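C-alpha cells incoming
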C-alpha cells in the first residue's frame, strides 16, 4: 500500500536539506514586524490544530496513561451513544459504533500510538494524529470501495480520541523559545498557544490582513508567511531565525548569523517596551484637524495597553474571538459578562462590538459543511440571519450589557439595507422581550460594516438606516479586487492603493458626511503610517487600529498637515493604476515626510 502524506515523518527526515543541515534562507511575506530566534514547534492539522511537544523522559509514563484513559473514555462514550439508539436507527447505527469500538480495541493501532509516544517522546495528541493519518492514507489508497470507506470510521475515532485528549490538557505546553511553524494557523490556536509565549510564527498560508496575523501584530510576535513547503524542510526542535522586517527565515543558521540576529532580536525586545510609553492629549495634524485614534481590541488587557498610548475607546471588538475562546457559541450570560467587562473599562469613549463575523467553516457539529468559497459564503450577517436563535442571544446579551454602558453594535458583511432593517426588527423584538421580563437593557447605537462592494454603491442608503459606518478595508480590498486576503500566492494583487479602492473609500466617507453620521476606518489600512495620511486626505477622522500601531500612527498624524494630505489625494485621484498611486505616494513621502519615518517603517514597495 502506498503511504503518501506530506506530513509523514520519514519524508521529512529524508529531505536533502535536513541531512546536510546547511544554512538556508527562505523568503516569504513579512506580516508582523520584529526579529526572533527560536526552536521550531510544528503545528499539525487544519480543522483542529495540534502541536508536537518533546517530552522529558519522566513525562512519558504519564503521557501513556493519558492515552490509555482517553481510549477507555472514548469507548465509554460510544457505548453510551449505542445505548441511546432507537429501534428504527438501531441496525445502521450500532454497526457503525461497533466498528468504532473495534478500532479502539485494535491492539496493533494502540501499540503504534504508544510506541510513537514512547520512542519519539511526543505528546499523545501528536502520536494519535500522525499514526491515524498514516492508516487513513493507507485505507484511501485501497481500490475496493467498501474497504476504502473504512477510513471514515478511522477519522471519526481519531477525532473522538483527540477531543477526549483535548478535554484534559497536559500540564506542559510548547517548549521555551518556540517558533510556531504550520501550513496555516487558526486564530483560536494562536490564542491557545500564546499561553506558552512563543517567539515567532512561520506559515505557508496567510496574508497581512489574516486574522491570525492581525493577532500576531497585537501580540508583538514577528511573523513571516508564504513560505511554501516549509514543513518539509524543518522539524520540531530545529533552530530558526525569523526576520519579520524583511519576510525572511533562516534555517540552520551559522554562528555568525546567530550572533548578528541576536543583537537585532534584543533591539526588537527593547522597542516593544519603549512602545508602551504613556501618551495623552488630543491628536491633531499640524494645521489643527483632530484625528481620533481608537483601538481594535478584544480583551480588557489590550484595551488598557491601548489607553496608555492614547486610544479613545474601541473602534472594533471582534466578538467572534469569544467563539474561538469557548470553541462554540458562548452563552447569553458569558456574552453579557464579556461585553460588560470591556464596556465598563472603556466607559465614556464607547466600544463598537461587531456581531459574530463567523463562517460555516468556524462552526462545528451539525452546522458544519464544506463551502467552495467560504469568503463568499454563509458568513457575517448572513450566518447570523440564518441562525437567528444565536443572533437573538447575542443581541439580548448586547442589549443587557448596554444598560449603563456605552456600547454600539456593528453588523458585519452588510450588502443590502434589507439586512439592516431585518436586524433592527430582531433587535427591537429582543428589547421588548427583555422589557416584558422586566430585565434592564440599554439603547445601543447600530452601525454597518462597509466591506462588500455592494455596500459601497449603496452607502448613501445604508447611511440613512444606521447611526455610523465602519469601513473594513481588509475585506473591501479582498472583494473589490477579487483577491483572497489569506493567499500569499496572490499577495501581489492585494493593492490597498488601487484606484478603485481609493474611489470606494471616498464614496463611503462622503456618504457618511452627507448623512451627518460618523465613519470609523477599522481595517489594517488605518494602522499603517503609510496609508493613514491618505485616509485622512480622503476625509477620515476616526481611525481604529491594533494597539501596536497606535504610536507610529500618532507620530505621523502629528507631523503632517491636513492640507498636505488633501494635496496628495488630489494627485493620486488622477492615477489609473496601483503602481502609479504607490509611486506618487512614495515620492511624496520621501520628499516631504521622510523625517517622520524610522528605518523599520519605510514605505513598502508593494501594497
Ligand atoms: C475588515 O474587513 O477590514 C475588518 C476590519 O474586519 P475583519 O478583518 O475582521 O474581516
Ligand atoms: Mg471584514
Amino acid at each position: 500500500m502506498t503511504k503518501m502524506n506530506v506530513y509523514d515523518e520519514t519524508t521529512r527526515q529524508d529531505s536533502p536539506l535536513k541531512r546536510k543541515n546547511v544554512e538556508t534562507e527562505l523568503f516569504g511575506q513579512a506580516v508582523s514586524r520584529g526579529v526572533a530566534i527560536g526552536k521550531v514547534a510544528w503545528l499539525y492539522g487544519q480543522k483542529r490544530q495540534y502541536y508536537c511537544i518533546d517530552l522529558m523522559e519522566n513525562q512519558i509514563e504519564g503521557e501513556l496513561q493519558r492515552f490509555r484513559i482517553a481510549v477507555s473514555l472514548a469507548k465509554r462514550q460510544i457505548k453510551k451513544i449505542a445505548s441511546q439508539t432507537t429501534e428504527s436507527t438501531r441496525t445502521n447505527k450500532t454497526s457503525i459504533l461497533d466498528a468504532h469500538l473495534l478500532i479502539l480495541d485494535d491492539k496493533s493501532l494502540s501499540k503504534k500510538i504508544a510506541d510513537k509516544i514512547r520512542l519519539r517522546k511526543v505528546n499523545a495528541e501528536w502520536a494519535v494524529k500522525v499514526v491515524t493519518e498514516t492508516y487513513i492514507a493507507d485505507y484511501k489508497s485501497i481500490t475496493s470501495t467498501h474497504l476504502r470507506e473504512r477510513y471514515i470510521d478511522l477519522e471519526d475515532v481519531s477525532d473522538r480520541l483527540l477531543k477526549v485528549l483535548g478535554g484534559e490538557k497536559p500540564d506542559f505546553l510548547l517548549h521555551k523559545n518556540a517558533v510556531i511553524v504550520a501550513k496555516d494557523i487558526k486564530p483560536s490556536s494562536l490564542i491557545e498557544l500564546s499561553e506558552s509565549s512563543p517567539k515567532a510564527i512561520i506559515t505557508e498560508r496567510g496574508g497581512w490582513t489574516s486574522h491570525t496575523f492581525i493577532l500576531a501584530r497585537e501580540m508583538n510576535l514577528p511573523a513571516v508567511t508564504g513560505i511554501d513547503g516549509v514543513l518539509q524542510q524543518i522539524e520540531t526542535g530545529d533552530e530558526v531565525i525569523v526576520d519579520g522586517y524583511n519576510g525572511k527565515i533562516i534555517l540552520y543558521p551559522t554562528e555568525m548569523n546567530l550572533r548578528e540576529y541576536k543583537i537585532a532580536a534584543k533591539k526588537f525586545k527593547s522597542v516593544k517596551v519603549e512602545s508602551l510609553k504613556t501618551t495623552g492629549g488630543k491628536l491633531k495634524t499640524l494645521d489643527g484637524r483632530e484625528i481620533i485614534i481608537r483601538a481594535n481590541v478584544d480583551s480588557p488587557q489590550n484595551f488598557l495597553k491601548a489607553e496608555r498610548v492614547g486610544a479613545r475607546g474601541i473602534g472594533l471588538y471582534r466578538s467572534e474571538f469569544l467563539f474561538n475562546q469557548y470553541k462554540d457559541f458562548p452563552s447569553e450570560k458569558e456574552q453579557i459578562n464579556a461585553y460588560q467587562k470591556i464596556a465598563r473599562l472603556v466607559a465614556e469613549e464607547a466600544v463598537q462590538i461587531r456581531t459574530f463575523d463567523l463562517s460555516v467553516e468556524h462552526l462545528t457539529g451539525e452546522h458544519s459543511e464544506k463551502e467552495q468559497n467560504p469568503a463568499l459564503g454563509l458568513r457575517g450577517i448572513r450566518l447570523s440571519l440564518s441562525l437567528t436563535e444565536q443572533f437573538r442571544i447575542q443581541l439580548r446579551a448586547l442589549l443587557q450589557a448596554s444598560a449603563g454602558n456605552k456600547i454600539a453594535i456593528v453588523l458585519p458583511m452588510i450588502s443590502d439595507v434589507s439586512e439592516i432593517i431585518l436586524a433592527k426588527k430582531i433587535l427591537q423584538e429582543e428589547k421588548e422581550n427583555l422589557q416584558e421580563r422586566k430585565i434592564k437593557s440599554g439603547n445601543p447605537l447600530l452601525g454597518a460594516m462597509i466591506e462588500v462592494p455592494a455596500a459601497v454603491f449603496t452607502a448613501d442608503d445604508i447611511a440613512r438606516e444606521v447611526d455610523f459606518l465602519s469601513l473594513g478595508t481588509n475585506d473591501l480590498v479582498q472583494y473589490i479586487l477579487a483577491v483572497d486576503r489569506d493567499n500569499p500566492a496572490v499577495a501581489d494583487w492585494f493593492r490597498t492603493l488601487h484606484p478603485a479602492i481609493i474611489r470606494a473609500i471616498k464614496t463611503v466617507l462622503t456618504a457618511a458626511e452627507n448623512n451627518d453620521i460618523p465613519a470609523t476606518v477599522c481595517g489594517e489600512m488605518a494602522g499603517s503610517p503609510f496609508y493613514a495620511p491618505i485616509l485622512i486626505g480622503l476625509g477620515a477622522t476616526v481611525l481604529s487600529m491594533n494597539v501596536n500601531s497606535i504610536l507610529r500612527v500618532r507620530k505621523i498624524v502629528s507631523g503632517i498637515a491636513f492640507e498636505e494630505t488633501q494635496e496628495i489625494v488630489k494627485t493620486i485621484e488622477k492615477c489609473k493604476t496601483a503602481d502609479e498611486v504607490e509611486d506618487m505616494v512614495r515620492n511624496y513621502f520621501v520628499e516631504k515626510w521622510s523625517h517622520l519615518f524610522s528605518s523599520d517603517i519605510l514605505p513598502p514597495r508593494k501594497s
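note: The domain at 283-362+376-601 is CATH 3.20.20.60 (TIM Barrel).
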